C-alpha cells in the first residue's frame, strides 16, 4: 500500500517512491465528484451525500488535481484510494504528527457523537472505525421515518393455506400425504433484507470495544436499536454475507428516503475488511468530507444558540425574498427569487467560509453579503472562518445605506496533547463566539 499524506487546499510533489502510484491516482484526479457515479463505486462515501443540498457547487469540484507529478487539493478531506494507492487528505489545521483533531471535532459536533479518545486518528483503520460512531446519526434519521416495510415472499408448509400452492415443493415434502400443504405468501413485513442489514450492523458494532457506548449514545439511539431488533426475529449471524449481497443495490423509496444513506453506512461497516485492503480492482473507495459543508454544519451547532436560521436551498425553506410584491403581482409572486444566506436572523447576515480570510475577503463574496444585507435591511453582516491564529474581529462601516461588515476568525488550531484537551479549548472559543455575536 502506497499512502500519500496531504492537507486540504495545498500542493505537494510526488516523491520517487510514490511515482508508481500515478497510474491509480489518474483514476481519481481531475474528475468532478458529481461524475463519479457513486452507485458504481459503493465503497466511496461522500458527505454531503445530497450534492448541492445547500445551493453550493460541491458536485462540480474535484477530489484532487494532478499536474504532472504534482497533486493539488481543495476543500475535500478524508481519504480516497484505488487498488494499493491511498491518499490521506487531512485538514490544513492538523498537527505535524498527523493528529487531525479539528476534523474529528467537527465530525463529533455535526453527527452528535460522544468521542473523547482518538489516537492516530488519520490512519486507515481509525477513519473507517469512525463510521461506527456515525451510525447512530443515520439510524435515528431513518427510524424517525418509521421502520422500513416491504413485501416479501414467505414459504410455508402447514394446513392453513393462505396463498398459492407450490406444487413441486408440495410433492417433495408431503408425499406420502401428511395433512400439510406447501404454499407461499407475499406479506408486507418489517423483517426484510434492509432491516436485516441494519440488525447485522448493530450486532457487528456490539462486538467492538466501544460498541456498548455507541449503541447507548442517547435515548433515541437505544430506542432505534430496540425497534430494529424487535423487527428482525429471524436474524442469524450465518446469513450475514447473503444479506450483504441482497443490499448491493441501493434502496429507493419516496417515503423511507433516509434509509438509502443508512444502507450505505451499514454496507461500509460490514464490508470493512474488503474495502480497507482495496480488494476490488480499479474501484474507488474511501470516505470524503467537503470542508466547506462540514464547517457550515459545525457552525450551525453553535449559531442556532444565537437564534440564527440556517436556510436549506434544496428544501426551499428558510430563505428570504429578493423582491417585494402586492396582491395583484401574481407573476412576480410565482417567480419570486429567494435568497439563501448561510445564516441569518433579524438584522444580521452571516456567511460561513472555509477559505483563508486572514488577508481579506474576495470581491464576489463581499458583493453577495452586501446584497443580502440590502434586501433584508440588515445593519450587520459578515463572514466567519477558521483561523490558525487568535485574531480580533475586523469591522468596516459600509457607505451609502450604511451597515457594519464583520470578519470573524475562529481560532481552531491549539497545542493540545489529547483530543479531550482540544475539545475543552474549542468549547471556550465557541462561548467567546456566541458572546461576541450577541453583543
Structure notes:
With 439 residues, this protein is of the alpha/beta class. It has three domains: 2-147 and 191-293, no CATH class; 150-189, no CATH class; 307-438, no CATH class. 34% of the residues lie in helices and 21% in strands. The chain has 14 helices and 17 strands. It has helices at residues 22-25, 101-110, 124-143, 167-174, 193-206, 211-215, 219-231, 240-246, 258-270, 272-276, 291-303, 330-334, 363-376, 419-438; strands at 2-7, 11-13, 44-47, 64-67, 70-73, 76-82, 85-90, 150-158, 181-189, 284-290, 320-321, 338-339, 343-345, 348-352, 380-387, 394-397, 404-411. The protein has a five-stranded mixed sheet. A five-stranded mixed sheet has the order 13-14-15-17-16, with helices on both faces. A three-stranded antiparallel sheet has the order 2-5-4, with no helix packed on it. Strand 16 (394-397) and strand 17 form a beta hairpin. The protein is globular. The protein starts with a strand and ends with a helix. Mean pLDDT is 83; it is low at 51-55 and 117-124.
Amino acid at each position: 500500500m502506497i499512502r500519500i499524506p496531504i492537507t486540504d487546499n495545498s500542493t505537494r510533489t510526488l516523491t520517487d517512491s510514490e511515482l508508481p502510484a500515478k497510474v491509480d491516482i489518474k483514476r481519481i484526479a481531475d474528475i468532478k465528484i458529481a461524475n463519479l457515479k457513486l452507485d458504481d463505486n459503493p465503497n466511496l462515501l461522500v458527505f454531503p451525500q445530497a450534492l448541492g443540498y445547500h445551493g453550493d457547487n460541491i458536485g462540480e469540484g474535484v477530489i484532487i488535481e494532478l499536474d504532472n507529478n504534482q497533486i493539488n487539493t481543495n476543500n475535500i478531506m478524508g481519504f480516497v484510494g484505488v487498488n494499493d494507492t491511498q491518499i490521506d487528505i487531512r485538514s490544513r489545521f492538523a498537527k505535524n504528527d498527523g493528529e487531525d483533531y479539528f476534523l474529528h471535532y467537527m465530525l463529533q459536533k455535526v453527527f452528535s457523537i460522544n468521542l473523547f479518545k482518538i489516537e492516530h486518528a488519520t490512519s486507515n483503520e481509525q477513519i473507517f472505525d469512525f463510521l461506527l460512531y456515525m451510525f447512530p446519526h443515520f439510524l435515528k434519521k431513518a427510524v424517525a421515518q418509521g421502520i422500513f416495510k416491504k413485501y416479501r415472499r414467505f414459504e410455508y408448509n402447514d394446513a392453513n393455506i393462505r396463498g398459492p400452492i407450490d406444487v413441486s415443493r408440495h410433492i417433495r415434502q408431503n408425499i406420502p400425504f401428511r395433512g400439510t400443504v406447501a404454499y407461499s405468501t407475499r406479506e408486507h413485513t418489517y423483517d426484510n433484507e434492509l432491516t436485516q442489514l441494519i440488525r447485522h450492523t448493530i450486532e457487528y458494532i456490539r462486538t467492538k470495544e466501544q460498541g456498548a457506548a455507541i449503541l447507548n449514545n442517547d435515548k433515541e439511539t437505544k430506542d432505534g436499536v430496540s425497534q430494529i431488533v424487535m423487527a428482525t426475529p429471524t436474524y442469524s449471524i450465518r446469513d450475514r454475507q447473503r444479506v450483504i449481497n441482497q443490499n448491493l443495490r441501493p434502496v429507493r423509496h419516496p417515503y423511507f428516503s433516509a434509509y438509502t444513506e443508512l444502507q450505505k453506512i451499514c454496507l461500509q461497516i460490514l464490508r470493512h475488511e474488503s474495502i480497507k485492503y482495496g480488494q476490488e480492482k480499479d474501484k474507488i473507495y474511501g470516505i470524503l468530507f467537503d470542508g466547506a459543508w462540514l464547517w457550515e454544519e459545525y457552525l450551525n451547532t453553535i449559531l442556532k444558540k444565537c437564534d440564527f436560521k440556517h436556510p436549506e436551498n434544496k428544501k426551499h425553506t428558510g430563505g428570504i425574498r429578493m423582491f417585494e410584491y402586492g396582491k395583484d403581482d401574481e407573476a412576480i409572486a410565482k417567480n419570486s427569487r429567494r435568497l439563501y444566506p448561510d445564516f441569518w436572523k433579524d438584522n444580521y447576515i452571516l456567511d460561513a467560509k472555509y477559505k483563508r480570510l486572514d488577508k481579506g475577503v474576495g470581491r464576489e463574496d463581499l458583493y453577495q453579503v452586501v446584497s443580502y444585507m440590502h434586501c433584508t435591511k440588515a445593519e450587520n453582516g459578515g463572514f466567519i472562518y477558521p483561523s490558525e491564529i487568535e485574531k480580533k474581529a475586523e469591522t468596516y462601516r459600509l457607505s451609502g445605506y450604511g451597515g457594519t461588515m464583520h470578519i470573524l476568525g475562529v481560532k481552531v488550531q491549539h497545542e493540545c496533547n489529547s483530543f479531550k484537551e482540544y475539545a475543552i479549548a474549542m468549547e471556550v472559543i465557541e462561548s467567546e463566539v456566541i458572546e461576541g455575536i450577541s453583543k
